[in-house]
Design a protein that fits this description.
The chain is mostly helical and about 120 residues long. The protein is built from three helices and no strands. This is Heparan-alpha-glucosaminide N-acetyltransferase domain-containing protein.
Length: about 120
């Protein structure tokens, strides 16, 4: 079944993803183009608008995905299950990252303590 895509949402999504990549990987942190830095406290930079644009895209995508669905308990159950899966994936990746850091530090400790010359 082919669904018609909304090009404006896809374009905004693509621009936002490119902006996320550019902001988070500037090449060298010692000389970053100033609009790619977050505002210190007061003020606003283009970087500070990327996450709100991303949340807007998420919200509008959910609306377009479920606008023709019947609003019943099954629809809300699907949304809840998908949300729990995404939260679980985030927790799993966080746990996996912390375990890998723990193992790396443990390896360094063992090497430093037991293989001294």
């Amino acid at each position: 079944m082919f669904k018609k895509r909304i090009q404006s949402v896809d374009v905004l999504r693509g621009i936002t993803i490119i902006a996320m990549i550019v902001v988070n990987t500037p090449g060298t942190w010692s000389s970053v183009y100033s609009p790619f830095l977050h505002a210190e406290w007061h003020g606003l930079s283009p970087t500070d608008l990327i996450f709100p644009f991303f949340l807007f895209i998420v919200g509008i995508s959910i609306y377009f995905a479920y606008k023709n669905k019947v609003s019943n308990m099954l629809t809300y159950r699907k949304i809840g299950i998908r949300s729990l899966k995404l939260i679980g994936l985030g927790l799993f990746l966080t746990f996996l990252f912390r375990i890998s850091l723990l193992l790396i530090n443990l390896k360094r400790f063992v090497f430093r303590e037991f293989y001294k010359e």
